Structure formats: C-alpha cells, structure tokens
Amino acid sequence: MNSPTLDSNEKGAEPVTIELTAELAQAFQEAHEHFKAHQWAQAQALYERVLKEVPQMEPAALQWVRCLVLQGHPMQAREGFSQVLRNFPNNYSAWLEAGHLCRQQAQHQQAQVCYAKAIGLVPGRFEARLSMARLLEDQGQFDAGAVEYHRALQAGGADKARTMHWRMAKFRLERGDVPRALESMRQALLILRLASEPLDDNERAEMQMDLGDIFLRLGMTEDGHRALERASAGTAEVTLARLAELSFRYNLWQEAQEVLRRSVALHPDSGTAHWNLAHSLAESWCMQEALEVLAKAEALSPQSGAKSMRASVAGRSGDADTAMRLYKELADEEGPLSKMRSSAAMSALYSDKLSPQDVADLHRELFAPLGARARAVGSFKNKKSPQRKLRVGLVTADFHHQHPVNIFMQPVLARLDPKAVDLTVYFTGVSYDDQTQLAKRRVPHWVEVTAWNDAQLARRIEEDGIDILLDLAGHTSMQRMSLFAQRAAPVQATFLGYPGSTGVPNIDWLVADSVVAPPGSENLFSEKLVRLPGSVFCFSPEVDYPFPAYDASHAERPLTFGSFNNVPKLTPHTVKLWAAVLQEVPGSRLLLKAPSFKDAGAIESFVQRFEAEGIARERLEFRGPVGLTDMMAEYADVDIALDPTPYNGGTTTLQALWMGVPAVVKAGGNFVSRMGASFMTAAGLSEWVAESDADYVRIAAAMARDRQALLELKQGMRERLLASPAWDIDQYTRDFENALRQMWLAHCQKSSEGV
After folding, report:
1. 187 to each of 162, 210, 605, how far by Cα in Å?
2. What digits encode the pLDDT tens for the residues 450-492?
3. What is the residue range of 334's domain?
4. Of residues 441, 430, 438, the one with CA closest to residue 407
5. Which residue of 74, 98, 239, 258 is surrounded by the most CB atoms within 10 Å?
6. What is the number of alpha carbons within 13 Å of residue 300 lying toward its C-beta?
7. What single-letter DSSP state applies at residue 25?
8. How far is CA 173 from CA 166, 210, 393, 497, 746, in A?
C-alpha cells in the first residue's frame, strides 16, 4: 500500500473548524510527531485520546485508521475505515485509502466501489482515477484501465502528468508488466525533458532507478547499468540507500558498497547511513568490517536491527548456536509471526549440538502458531478427477544465476509434459537476470507477486485453480511460509529449496529420496514423504563446464583435500574432523573456498581454528568468490572433496562430482546430514560414505593412499555419472511428475473417503 498522505485538503468537503483545549491540541500535535517518526502505536493511542473527547474531529479519525494500516492490522483497519466513512462519508482520502486496503486484501469489488466513491466526491482529483486504472489492469481489464488512465491524466493536468506516468510505471512494474511500465516511464521522461524547471538531483535519480530496474528486467543490461550510473548523482541518504539495494539485487555488490561508502561520506553523522553500509558488508561476507561499521552506527544512534545483524554475522562465521540463540530471542520479542523464526530454524540445521529429533521438534514448535484458523482442505472446489491434467503452482524467488533452485529446476522446466502439468510460477523475488528471463519463457504462466501480501496471493492462486502448490524456499529468504500455513491450495508440498522438514502446518508433502529420508525416519518430518526413486536432486547443468584433463601429474602432486562450501557449514565439529583427516594423511593440504574468504578477518579466524587442532597454516589455502565458470574450473586443483557435517554440501558436492572430484561424506541422522550419502550412493560410490567420524577419517586416508586408483576414478567420473539413472534428467522429470500425481491421487482418495 502507498504510504498515506497527511494532506488534509484531500477531503471532498470543507473541513469543520473545531476548537480544542490546550491539552487536546498538545496531544494532537504529539500524535503527529509520533506519526512522522513512524511510531504508529504511540500515535494511535494519542489519536484515540483526542477522539474520545472530540469524536467529530475528522483529521484525527483518519490518522487513527492510518496507524492501524501501518501497523499491519488489516481487519481492524477495514473496520476503522467503515467507522470513519459512516461518520464522515464525504472524506475523499478515506475512500481512496480504503480502496487501497481492499485491493491489498484482494477484495477487488470492494476496492472498485471505494475508488468510485472517491471519484464521485472529487472528479477533478487524479489519485482515485489512477488507482482505479491500476485495479482494472490488475484484473486484466486493460481497455477499461486505459480509459481511467486517460481520465486521470485529464484530471491531473499538465503539471501532474509526469508524476502520474511515473506512478503508473511503478504500479505496472510492481505487477510485473514490464513492457507497459516502460511505456509509462518513457512518457514521464519525455515530459521531464520538455520541462522548463530543473528537477531535483534526487528525484531525477529515483526516476533513473526505476528506469534501470525496468531495463534490467527486460534483459537490456547495458541500458540498465547506464541508468543506475546516472542515478548515482543523487545525494540524499534514502536515495543512495535505495540505489545500493537495487545494485545489490542485480549482483552489483561492489557498486552497491561504493554507493553506501559515499552515503557515509556525505552523511557522517547518520547512524542509518552507517547501518546501511554495515548491512551491505555483512551480506557481502565482509564480516569483520561489517561489525566495525555496525559499532559506529550504534555509537551515533540506536539500531533496532543490531541483534539481527550480529546473529547473521555469527551464523556466517560458523557459530550456528549463537546465531540460533539470537534469532530465537528476536522471535520471542516480535511474536508468533516473526520472520526471525525462520532464521532460527535455518540456524538449527548447522548446529553441532542439536540431535535430528531436537531440530525436528524445534521446527514444529516455532511454526505451530502459523496454522491457526487455516483454511480447510474441503473448502476448495477443484475437480477431484485422479487422472486429469494438474494445475501446479511454484512459489519461488530464486530463478536467478547461481542459485541452487535455479540450477536444479531449469532443466525440469524445459522437460515438463504440458499434457500432464499446467504450470504457474508465482515469483516472489527481486533479483532478475538472463536466467529469470529463461524461466519465464519456459513456463506457460508467470505471475509477479513480490509486492503482494498473502491475501492477494492466496486469492490469485484460487482464481487460477491451482491443485498442487509447491514451496521452493522453505525458511530461506523471500519465503512465504505464512501463506502455506494458512493453506492456499488443496495440496501443498515443499521441494528443493530447504534440506529438511519445514515444521509448517498444512504443508502436506515433502519430496525426498530413500537415503535422505530412509524408512523409519518419518517422525522427523511434519509432512508426509513422497520419495523419488533416484536422488532428490538431479544435477544436469545447461552450461558446458569443460572436464579437467586429469593426467599422471595429478597423482604425483601433494594431495589436496577441498571444500567449496560456505563458511556457516564449517562448524567446530567439521573443523575437528577435517583436521583429523589432515593429521592422518601427512603432507596433504586443504583448499577452502567460500565468499567469506575474500575477508582477511575470516581467513585469520579459520587459520586459528585449524592451528588449535594442530594444523599449520602452511597446509591451508583460502580462496574467495569468482564467477561460476571459473569456480567450476578450480575443482581441477582438488583431489578429494571433504563434505561438512551436520549440514552437508548440496550443490557444491554435485558440482565437485561433475568436475571429477569424489567426496568423503558422513551419513547423519536427518535430511540435511544425509544429502552427501544420497549423492555418493546414487553415483555407485557407497564406499565413500562414512557412518562415524572415525570411519570418515579412515575412508579419507585410504582413498588418499592409492593415488593411481583415485586418478582413474577421477578420469572416468563424468561418464560414470551420465550412466547413472540419478543423472538422467529426462527420467528425473518423469519421476517428479509421478510424485505430483501421487500427491494428487492421495488427495482424491481422501476426499472420496470423506476424510
């Protein structure tokens, strides 16, 4: 929803002059101050105090309901708007903002009524007409929307035309209608070029950012980068923060940090400017500097997100238990709907101290409240025909370069049988690149829902008649666990994006295999299990990564163990285990590659951890991030991969195998700690799977001793994989379709039995 305006001139009738006592006038003024400071609860309490004494005070009544909207209380806000409009039926702003709220709640008919009321009250205002145009376009009524768009332009006049075109461009971009967004943006920029008055640098920068976003979503990369470069002329703190966020979103990490360093230089006394830089550094795996800048931010002003950032830094530094503790504290502070619960759950997967049952119990405990008052399965009207074509929805933010979900799903999208599955992607993400465009071309229906709330998305999913809704995120970023917990489709499942049970109510199924979820492990899952016959993940890269030329020299060089896993997986237990391997194989070395290792502080930290286990730094090599193609080529420098525990490598292990590098893995007690066992078993290399730490060290040492056998294995690795059913992407896709059918048949059978 757009932030509500305080413009009291938006009323449809002349305001009534009300005399206030000095005490009430002071309370009203304080309420406004709290409102401007985004202290909605305090402002609401003061507005209520004023209204109790002077119920006819229209501005206080509208501000009061705005506080409800901004605090995220939609049902209370709808009741509040009803009350305000009963008392003040000619209030243009109230009708307009009630329409916004109804649109956000996917109550399209009510929203249309509200906008029409506002238009009838003040036909000469453009806001309601433009909002009506947006609503009509949202519903696919483009001709009617064009009429209202035109009428809005007439109502606003020439002096408002640029603003209206720009606002419509934003509306269309939010909906994902990027070509139409470009049309409106071009009109806004044309008017800007013809304008006689110079535009403020920051407003010009904001326009360039929207233009750059549009270009980049359309795949016009050079144009997009030029627009973002022009936007760097801005100087306002909020403008530079948005430019950095947009740059980061499009994988321009260095550019984002340059913008934020400039912001700090321009606003050295701003705690927020320092905070933004600290956050960017943490997200870029520059942990030591992130904490230093965070300390500067806190010295300037209190930072509400400081604990969350410290939790993130702890997790990214390999201290999962500290991260989990901090996230749980934040979750308790914020309540049952806090996103920190997902962060705590994710941290638990890395913990050396929790048993598999502890992890499962924690997930159930954290997310049980999300299922309160969820929709009943029987309320959906989908035709329960067992063999008909299935309407399947994917909820994901992750169709972009290098993300594991994208890597594994793109080949599946290319092979799904359109006669069996009618696929819709509900894209919740903010990152767009050539892989996003490829995914859009591969699916029949693509809906941009990043800016939608759960109610809007649930309404659209029902309108689309989705039979099976698949979550591809679990508790990772940009997830929609609350949507699934409230049930948005008759059958719901989680797949690929999260290595284990979500613990979220009303997710009916989890897609697994018989190794990551062996018979007898069902108690570790809040979902029912559907097992694929091979491995749960099928690695079938669509990019040609040349296979290294492993020759005799590889058997003669000092043996190099390696891990390309992110630092959070390098737990204290894993470090001890790998140190034991190095002790058992004299002369061997360990290559560690991760984004964190571009940070000198991270390198020094792990040098000290290994030195504490008796491993000299000369036996360690650290490498930072490079592009994916270059990273794949670096596997030629590794002889044997070492899999971390309890959070196994997923994509990294499969990439290592693809490049000819076998992995020593330990079979743990749950999904996340059995992925390595799944991959190595599927590759016919079960002798590389350890059942204990001692077994892990024994296997690593034994495989390292026979260099000729190791070389022969490496040389034939890719052929071995391609001959394995688990690497047959065509069969994997058919198996995945069969899993979907199995879920649907179970639903139909339940319905026929009246369950």
Report:
1. 7, 13, 54
2. 988 898 899 999 999 999 999 999 999 899 999 999 999 999 9
3. 311-371
4. 438
5. 98
6. 15
7. H
8. 11, 9, 22, 26, 39
